[in-house]
């Protein structure tokens, strides 16, 4: 287990200096990452741009880049309203999830495919096809599809990578790519994501997961899309604004062989599944890639699968159905 993963998710508890604990664990590990350079050492950092080739260069060099005006005004307005209504509805229904510190000011919305057509439509945004195939190859799918509403008083979170849960660690190449859609103007004050530039290159990791030293922050106008790969060290920034909130939507895609965080084939409702296009179903893990993802045995590559109406069950030797009880073995 990567020691930073264990520490971040409380699988490893320690007393005393957590930085010394991390470095001690590094000394025992075959992977010993170096401390990242300070963001002030760079001559330039990525800025929002409509030039997609520049965004590609930024992602390659820094691990992240910004697409300016990625959402049209109608798309932005529709997503803003749908997310606001969903957040208020979940809070009123008593099913909301809050975090961000002792007072839990942040609200997270999970499993967005179930939460509105606007979120389903975003799965077919041109930027998905623009970036995912060349980075993740064929058969990529969502690991998670969520929203994070960062509100004033948030403490932020510890530094992590979206690839930190892959064990054993594979730092040599990206297993995922994230699209973060800004639904408001995002800046340092209202909790822009903290990022360690170029921390995707080589064996680089922070010594202290709860120290933002050396980081920059994701900043851009509403409608911007932040593209960042899964090895970049980052964290939700503290929101020190006097009012308002910072809502963003996160589409985290992974390579076809990576187990997703959200099991969409179980969590997506039949009603939503019935109106999903093939691209939406691929995003949610319904597509067979190579020999993975079949139902009732092998299915050809590219098949969009569904729950079988009549699955093969336990049978007697004469072909009749048998009851299944506890084995005596």
UniProtKB/TrEMBL annotation:
The lineage of its organism: Eukaryota, Fungi, Dikarya, Ascomycota, Pezizomycotina. InterPro entries: Phytyl_CoA_dOase-like (IPR008775). SUPFAM superfamilies: Clavaminate synthase-like (SSF51197). It comes from Eremomyces bilateralis CBS 781.70. This is Phytanoyl-CoA dioxygenase. It comes from the Eukaryota.
């Amino acid at each position: 287990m990567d020691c930073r993963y264990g520490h971040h998710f409380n699988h490893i508890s320690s007393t005393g200096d957590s930085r010394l604990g991390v470095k001690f664990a590094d000394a025992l590990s075959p992977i010993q990452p170096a401390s990242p350079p300070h963001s002030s050492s760079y001559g330039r950092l990525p800025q929002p741009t409509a030039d997609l080739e520049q965004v590609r260069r930024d992602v390659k060099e820094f691990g992240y880049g910004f697409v300016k005006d990625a959402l049209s005004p109608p798309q932005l307005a529709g997503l803003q309203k749908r997310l606001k209504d969903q957040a208020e509805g979940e809070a009123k229904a008593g099913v909301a999830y809050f975090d961000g510190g002792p007072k839990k000011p942040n609200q997270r919305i999970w499993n967005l495919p179930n939460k509105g057509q606007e979120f389903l439509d975003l799965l077919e945004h041109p930027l998905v096809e623009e970036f995912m195939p060349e980075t993740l190859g064929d058969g990529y799918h969502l690991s998670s599809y969520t929203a994070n509403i960062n509100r004033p008083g948030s403490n932020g979170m510890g530094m992590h990578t979206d690839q930190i849960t892959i064990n054993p660690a594979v730092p040599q190449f990206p297993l995922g790519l994230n699209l973060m859609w800004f639904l408001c103007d995002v800046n340092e004050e209202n909790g822009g994501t903290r990022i360690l530039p170029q921390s995707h290159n080589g064996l680089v990791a922070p010594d202290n997961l709860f120290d933002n030293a050396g980081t920059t922050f994701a900043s851009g106008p509403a409608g911007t899309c932040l593209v960042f790969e899964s090895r970049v060290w980052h964290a939700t920034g503290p929101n020190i604004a006097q009012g308002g909130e910072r809502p963003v939507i996160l589409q985290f895609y992974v390579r076809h062989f990576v187990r997703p965080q959200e099991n969409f084939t179980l969590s997506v409702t039949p009603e939503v599944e019935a109106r999903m296009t093939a691209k939406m179903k691929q995003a949610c893990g319904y597509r067979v890639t190579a020999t993975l993802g079949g139902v009732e045995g092998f299915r050809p590559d590219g098949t969009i699968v569904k729950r079988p109406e009549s699955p093969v069950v336990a049978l007697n030797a004469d072909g009749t159905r048998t009851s299944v009880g506890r084995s005596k073995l």
